[in-house]
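Quick one - inputs below.
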Amino acid sequence: MREIEEIKASVRAFLAAHVLHDQGSEVLADSDPLISSRLIDSIVALKLVNHLEEKFNIEFEAHEVDQENLDSVERIAAFVQTKLK
Amino acid sequence: MEFTGVTANSISITFRERVNGLPLLVLLTGITCLLIHLYNIEAATGLTIIIPYLGIGILVNHILAVRFQPLFISSLSSILYCYALGIIPGIITTCTVLLFMFIVRMPIKKIYRIGLIGLAVGCFVLIRIQFFHFPSLIIATPVLASILMFRFIVFSYELKIEKQQPPFLLQLSYFLNPINLAMPLFPIIDYKTWINNFRTEAYNIQYKRSFVRIVLGIFQLLLYRVVYYNVPDLSSLETSGEMLGYIFGNYAMILRMLGIFWIAIGFSGMMGFSLPPVFQHAFLVTGFTQIWRRINIYWKDFITKVFYYEIYFKLRKKVKQSLIVSSMLIFLLTWILHNYQWFWLQGTVTLKTTDFLYWLILGICISVALRIEEKYGRKTSPASLLHSLRWALQVLAMITFMSVMWWFWNSASISEWIYMSGKLFINKETLLWPAVIASAVLIVLTMGHQILPRLPLQKFPFPIALAGVVILVVLQAPSMMQIETGLDKYVDKLSKLHMNALDRDRAEQGYYERLTGGSASPWEQNINFPGRNQWFSKSEIQTNDIRKRTLKSNFKVVSPDGRSTFSTNDYGLRGPSISLVKPPRVYRIAVLGGSYEMGSGVSDNETFLRVFEKRINERIQKSDSALYDSVEVLVFAAGGYHLPQYLWLTEHEVFRFQPDLVLVFGHSGEYNRFNSVFSGLIKNGVELGYSYLVDIKKQSGATQKMDRTEIKSRLHPYDESALIWCYSSLHRVCSEKRVPAYWIYLPSLGSERNPDEFNTLNTKLSSIGFLTFDLSNIYTGADQNSLKLSEEDNHPNAKGHELISNGLLQSLGDQLSRNLRIERQISN
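Output:
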């Protein structure tokens, strides 16, 4: 099973490349809201899902793309980990 | 199934804490109720009526233990539905919601559940199109539609995937909440958001934020009124400047939706639901993707969650550009859902090409912008002056784009839009003012973008909202203390949503036109003005001549309250029986007029012409020298009649009754009325019968296939000449019969007098040979609102008719005394 830190690092790398750009992902805390703060929207959320599916060889369902699972780095990591179990 | 009202997210609050929080809530609710009352916010949909109950409900809800609050909210809602709709429609509304909730949870196969829901929806479709006539159900259906049409879709979607059922009463409160009653236009709140955000915050934070949202909504609705009063009638516009005023003003009217939605989620907050914002600076979007993200966020979330992700996940392994294809399909779906919404609110479907193209163009623009953003990312720039200027230019460009799109969407057809677009290039020198305004807006936006982020305004929304309240209350203070300030007229206009000139014309004309298949009114108008007094609506039948319709002969109907009667005689004239042959020593006055003269909405004996007739006859009885024994007033009037009908009646009907005098009534906005009636005749394919009118139709290029706005616009240059021709022709017929014709100017209630129009008409009609009488001052000193049938119906009530009758006697008295040889002046 992948370590939760590895998943978080992967999410941070994605956010740095697609959302935060030159600001770098270090400005973001693990618990900072992503969807509810509108930092990521529906399109970025889908791209993030594709990224996670490829990277961790998992599969999301449509209804899983929501605030409950993707609203912070720690939530995403926890959700991906449950998928990996 | 849990019958409590709390979730794991709800915080626990003790009774003492609730009592401590009460004074703040009493203050905020009190101010909210006061503002809604003072400014008649959403009065047409009933908010001002239910606000006292809603206010008390909010306070009671606060004091109750949190677990009982959802039950209280649903119960209050059901009681208010019974109060507002009537007991049976209210019970039907609550029971139907429960029925739908029950069906989706029934432990039967999915296919049977879908079948049962389909059956229930099918029944409501038949009721909505009035296939069945169950009055209680007809009343309940639009309300139910407002509650269920989208929320039930979200609810069913969540049920499919939910792992743990939330408390039943909280589920019920999602559908049954009292705010929805006065706001049929309700935001599509997400079910999960509703459930998961119940009592999750400290009272004072939640209530203050909700209050700020309500005040913001009220300000937006007041701003909407200012825009609404000043947006011109598209069909009457002739220059580039006027057209631009219309295009931007028309888009600015979305302020109403913004205001309603902010108030709706503000009240939801006061009841314990901490909902996210529904808009994010809707007028300050800088790109196509922001249109999607910031204007009506709830709609975007609904579409994304229920449809967009589902479509994308189904397509992503089968279609190459699945993101773009999904986006495009979503806009197609949005178009379908808007028609679905329209059907439930209106009872009809309008499959307009402009509607489809609007969503298609918007879909393409946003999809392409999303693709570009996906590829290159969102760009950020340093906060320099140049950056602010670029931002301001982008905002202006997007407002222009959305305004043009909005105008296109509101156009009846593409050809109408193209024709009206041509007016943008006429008299381009009138573009000076729009250019000045655009430059000023650009400077304000640029400076605002530079300065506002540096001010700590966003940290103090509550004090700012309170300052706003103080301004609104101070504005009302002089009128409350009955002090005249000179601002009264403006404050009054702001305090009540009066009809603008265009809607006033539509309301007077439109109702009668709908009876005979004329153009439909905008959906908002139907929502806002449902209470028109239509008890006498069956009094008319269609004709094949230019009248289009006439009153049935020997018709009688009593109003539902039993207080008013509408009856016609053997000849289809409103009034008592008369003989075709004039009896000896009877003086007959034939009246040509429209709904005012017919006495729309008042009883037979209350119409001003009947009161006028009675008063003259009383004077004749007292006179020793009168040439006549009595006067008969024959009313050749019906709703929607104007000059073409008056002329036809003069040629074919009036002189069968040997009148001694013909009275022709004119009202405020004669040219517009004529234009409206003439365009209606062309649109309905009525045989015009007069070569002059046929020639004008030809010269203007107006045809039946065109949309009403285009026909009206094409006819405008001919309004004056055609109107005068009709008057001349009418007068010529009277002269040939050696009967005098008088023209009486009777201003419409609630309209502003246009002295130019009146003076021109007065001069021209006098030169034709009419003896003219001006009743312009009859309403002076009277509260015009107290003379109207209702807030939405500008026709005079019994008191108004009495006043008009007095004015008519005053004005015509001397002349009639001479005609009748009465020694005592009638006017005295």
